[in-house]
Write a structure and sequence with these properties.
- The complex is a heterodimer.
- By secondary structure, chain A is mainly beta.
- In chain A, 0% of the residues lie in helices and 53% in strands.
- In chain A, a hairpin with a 6-residue loop joins strand 3 and strand 4.
- Chain A starts with 9 loop residues before the first strand and ends with a strand.
- By secondary structure, chain B is mostly beta strands.
- In chain B, 0% of the residues lie in helices and 52% in strands.
- Chain B is built from no helices and 11 strands.
- In chain B, strands 2, 4, 5, 6, 9, 10 and 11 form a 7-stranded mixed sheet that branches.
- Chain B starts with a strand and ends with a strand.
- In chain B, 37% of the residues are buried.
- The chains are: A mainly beta, B mainly beta.
- The interface between A and B is medium-sized, with 26 and 28 residues.
Chain lengths: 112, 116
């Protein structure tokens, strides 16, 4: 498969444990944030999003937390499974624009 | 399968050449986005079209251009190619509209461009 970002930070997690992936975003004027998952050889896949008027949003096995004070976003994955192994990207969109700025990504490795 | 199709899957060309990448959005989607993904730059937003009109521009070089046709498919044209243009190029589509908060982007499988 494709190799994206050979020097990405890597998070190794035991199967069944919870994973926390962090992202520092750059623009204090961003008001919309998205997490994507990219498996080897595939395009990014939407996981969950959050608007800046929220601090937390939950999906199925995933939770996104937003801390606007320190411009920090995190993705929590509960009961991590082997199928969660992928590169995870956060993206921000500045207010009033349709532009998207992506973070560098974090590689999640799930250990059996 | 996201429903977004991109052709070709792979493209190998020489410096100075021009290529065209094609994207067909999901049925019913009016917005198309183009992204470049390279090893040293990560995923870069290039440009967005909504219903045939340019809506947002990101880090797109002047040597690159795009358009969205009446049937909503889109093409990304890359000219005067340089070695550094070698990358994965993704197209994504979404329903569009004015609300970003509920406008999930669906990505295609990408076109891998290699410039020799």
């Amino acid at each position: 498969g494709e190799s994206v970002g050979l020097h990405l930070p890597t998070l190794s997690v035991q199967e069944g444990d919870n994973s926390i992936i962090n992202c520092a975003y750059s623009n204090s004027a961003s008001d919309y944030f998205i997490w994507y998952k990219q498996e080897s050889g595939k395009g990014p896949q939407f996981i969950i999003d959050i608007r800046s008027n929220m601090d937390k949003r939950q999906g199925q096995r995933v939770t996104v937390l937003l801390n606007k004070t320190v411009k920090h976003l995190s993705l929590q994955i509960a009961a991590t499974q082997p199928g969660d192994s992928a590169v995870y990207f956060c993206a921000e969109s500045p207010t009033g624009t349709y532009k998207y700025i992506f973070g560098t990504g974090t590689r999640l490795k799930v250990l059996a | 399968d996201s429903g977004v199709t991109q052709t070709p899957k792979h493209l190998i060309t020489a410096t100075g050449q021009r290529v065209t990448l094609r994207c067909s959005p999901r049925s019913g989607d009016l917005s198309v986005y183009w992204y470049q993904q390279s090893l040293d730059q990560g995923l870069q937003f290039l440009i967005q079209y909504y219903n045939g009109e340019e809506r947002a521009k990101g880090n797109i070089l002047e040597r690159f251009s795009a358009q969205q046709f009446p049937d909503l498919h889109s093409e990304l044209n890359l000219s005067s190619l340089e070695l550094g243009d070698s990358a994965l190029y993704f197209c994504a589509s979404s329903v569009g509209g004015t609300s970003r908060g509920s406008d999930t982007q669906y990505f295609g499988p990408g076109t891998r461009l290699t410039v020799l």
